[in-house]
Design brief:
By secondary structure, the chain is α+β, with helices and mostly antiparallel strands. The protein is built from two helices and ten strands, in the order αββββββββββα. The strands form two sheets. Strands 1, 2, 3, 4, 5, 6, 7 and 10 form an eight-stranded antiparallel sheet that branches. Strands 8-9 form a two-stranded antiparallel ribbon.
């Protein structure tokens, strides 16, 4: 009886340890594999509905503005943080004199284009599988709550 209890407890401890290590190191592994410091994101609004829904967890891969194409869902930085919207057109005012392209984005559920951004604002694009956005429904809610705690742990290590 004691032997069974000890083995069961050991299995539980090993399982919990494995889960903790996986949760802690997954962002680091994904960051390297997807070539971005921001491999995971949570959708926080309905602006990309129906392609992406609030609290979806998504994967993004590193990309710069020159690499993205019209129709891609891109991630770009702005004054409030990051925005995840679809690239609807590229405007190159004067390519002959080295003018930078302006990128126009819009949330799928929005009726108005976003303010133009530059190629240097783009930090990545959504990972797709067979042309469909890779998303894990509802898992973003957990990631949003765990994220700050994991960052605190990583900052303590440094």
């Amino acid at each position: 009886m004691l032997k069974r209890l000890t083995i069961g407890t050991l299995k539980l401890v090993l399982y919990l340890l494995f889960v903790a290590v996986a949760v802690y190191y997954s962002p680091k592994i994904l960051s390297r594999a997807l070539n971005t410091p921001y491999p995971l994101a949570t959708i926080t609004s309905g602006s990309m509905w129906p392609a992406l829904k609030t609290n979806d967890l998504i994967l993004m891969k590193g990309a710069n503005g020159a690499d993205v194409e019209v129709g891609d869902i891109i991630i770009y930085k702005n004054s409030q943080g990051f925005t995840i919207h679809r690239l609807i057109r590229k405007e190159n005012p004067d390519a002959s004199v080295g003018g930078a392209a302006k990128l126009i984005t819009r949330g799928d559920a929005n009726n108005v284009d976003d303010a133009p951004i530059t190629e240097s604002d783009v930090i990545g694009k959504l990972v797709t599988i067979r042309g469909k956005p890779f998303r894990i429904p509802h898992l973003g809610l957990i990631a949003r709550n765990l994220g700050p705690k994991l960052q605190e742990l990583q900052n303590i290590e440094k």
